[in-house]
Write a structure and sequence with these properties.
Blueprint lengths: L13 H18 L5 E4 L3 H12 L5 E6 L2 H12 L3 E6 L8 H10 L5 E5 L1 E2 L4 E2 L2 H8 L6 E5 L11 H4 L3 E5 L11 E5 L1 H7 L11 H8 L12 H17 L1 H21 L13 E5 L6 H10 L16 E5 L6 H17 L8 H10 L7
Parallel strand pairs: 2-3, 2-4, 4-7, 7-8
Antiparallel strand pairs: 1-9, 5-6, 8-9, 10-11
C-alpha cells in the first residue's frame, strides 16, 4: 500500500497522534462498539494471550471450543498461565452446538469465560457466536471471548448489540495489511473482570494500553507498529467508502461463488457450516494436497492454503476476504481446474469457473 511507503513519521508526535485518533475512531465503528478498540504491536495470537491474561487468574476455569487449529490454541495459552480448561471438542468442519456450550456453562457455573472462534480458519467454519452470546450476556462473571481474526470486517457481527465481551482481530486478513498489528476491544463487563484478574502481564496489560490510547493521549504504551497503523487508517477509509453493508454482501457473494465452483468440480466442502472468509475443499482421491497447493503457488503463480494436522495433504483452502473480488474467484477456479488436469484428474474445463460466474453475475448491474 503506497500510504505505508511514505517517509516514516515519528510515533510520538502530534501528527501521528492525529492519525492514531482518527484510526481508532473508525476501528470502533467496524467493531460496532462504544468501548475502546485497542491496537497492539503483535500478531493476533498476542491479542489471544492478552485476552486470557487480562481476564483470568491462575486456578480460574475457562470453557473453550476446540474445533480446529486455532480453537486448540485457546487451551494451550490458558494452560501456560495456570488456568484450568474445559474443552468442548468439535469435529473439524462442524460448528459448535449451542447446547454443548449451555451444558458446559451449567456444569461449570464459575467459568471465567467462553473462548471461541467466530471463524475457524483451519476448517473454514463459522461458529454461532450470536447464539452463544445469548447464553453468556446475563452472566456477570463469565465473558464471551471471540477470536474474529478472519471474521471482523467480513461478516456483520455487532459487538455491543450481540453482547460480545472481547473481540480480537489482526491486520493481515480483512484489513488487507501485512501481519504485525492486532486489535482488541472489551465490553464494560470484560473491563470489570480485568480488575480482578491476577495472571502476570506486562507488555499486554490492556489497562495500561487503554490509559494511553484514550482520546486526548492518542498513543500506545509501547512502541507502536506505526506504518501498519497508518496503513490501517487508509484501509478503514476504503472500507467505509465501500460501505460496511456492501462489504459484508461482497464477501458473502464471493463465498457462495467459491463454494459453487468447487462443488461443480466434484470437490467436497470441508465444512458443514462454511465460513464467509474462506472455502475449504477436499482434493480428489489420489492427489497429494500438499503437492497440489505447491504446484499452484510455485508453477502457476496462484497462492492457496493447504490443510493442517490430519487435514494436511487432503484439502485446499481458497481465501475470499479483504481485497478479493469477482475476478479473483474466477482466477482461483481456473487455476484449480488446470492444476487438476496437470495432476491427471479428469476435469471438465470451465465447469468450476462457470458455476462461480453464475453467482458472480449478481455483483454487476444489468447493461
Amino acid at each position: 500500500m503506497l500510504r505505508m511507503a511514505h517517509p516514516m513519521m515519528h510515533h510520538r508526535t502530534p501528527q501521528f497522534s492525529a492519525i492514531f485518533s482518527e484510526t481508532k475512531a473508525m476501528l470502533e465503528k467496524v467493531f460496532q462498539t462504544r468501548n475502546d478498540a485497542l491496537m497492539l504491536a503483535s500478531s493476533g495470537s498476542g491479542a489471544m494471550e492478552a485476552a486470557v491474561t487480562n481476564l483470568c487468574s491462575p486456578g480460574d476455569t475457562i470453557i473453550y471450543v476446540n474445533g480446529g487449529k486455532f480453537g486448540e490454541r485457546w487451551g494451550k495459552i490458558a494452560a501456560k498461565h495456570g488456568v484450568n480448561v474445559v474443552e468442548i471438542k468439535v469435529e473439524w468442519g462442524h460448528a459448535v452446538s449451542v447446547d454443548a456450550v449451555r451444558e458446559a456453562l451449567e456444569a461449570h457455573p464459575h467459568a471465567r469465560g467462553v473462548f471461541v472462534q467466530a471463524s475457524e480458519t483451519s476448517t473454514t467454519t463459522e461458529h454461532p457466536i450470536r447464539e452463544i452470546a445469548a447464553l453468556t450476556r446475563s452472566l456477570p462473571k463469565c465473558a464471551l471471548v471471540v477470536d474474529a481474526i478472519t471474521a471482523l470486517g467480513v461478516i456483520d457481527m455487532p459487538m455491543d448489540a450481540w453482547g460480545l465481551d472481547v473481540v480480537i482481530s489482526g491486520s493481515q486478513k480483512a484489513f488487507m495489511l501485512p501481519p504485525g498489528l492486532a486489535m482488541i476491544a472489551l465490553s464494560e463487563k470484560a473491563w470489570a473482570l480485568t480488575e480482578e484478574a491476577k495472571c502476570p502481564r506486562f507488555y499486554f496489560d490492556l489497562a495500561v494500553e487503554r490509559k494511553n490510547q484514550q482520546r486526548g493521549k492518542d498513543t500506545t504504551a509501547w512502541t507502536p507498529a506505526a506504518s501498519l497503523i497508518i496503513g490501517l487508517n487508509e484501509v478503514l477509509k476504503m472500507m467505509f467508502e465501500e460501505g460496511l453493508d456492501e462489504l459484508y454482501a461482497r464477501h458473502a457473494l464471493l463465498a457462495r461463488a467459491a463454494r459453487a465452483g468447487v462443488k461443480a468440480l466434484g470437490m467436497e466442502l470441508v465444512s458443514k457450516a462454511p465460513a464467509t472468509s474462506a472455502t475449504g475443499a477436499y482434493v480428489p482421491e489420489g492427489i497429494d494436497g500438499g503437492a497440489f497447493v505447491k504446484y499452484l503457488r510455485d508453477v502457476m503463480g496462484v497462492t492457496f492454503a493447504g490443510g493442517q494436522d490430519h487435514l494436511k495433504g487432503k484439502i485446499v483452502r481458497i481465501a475470499h476476504l479483504g481485497y478479493y473480488d469477482a475476478f479473483d474467484i474466477t482466477t482461483a477456479m481456473s487455476a484449480i481446474e488446470m492444476a487438476l488436469g496437470k495432476f491427471g484428474h479428469p476435469v471438465n474445463m470451465g465447469a468450476g469457473v462457470a458455476a462461480a460466474q453464475d453467482v458472480l453475475l449478481e455483483r454487476f448491474p444489468k447493461a
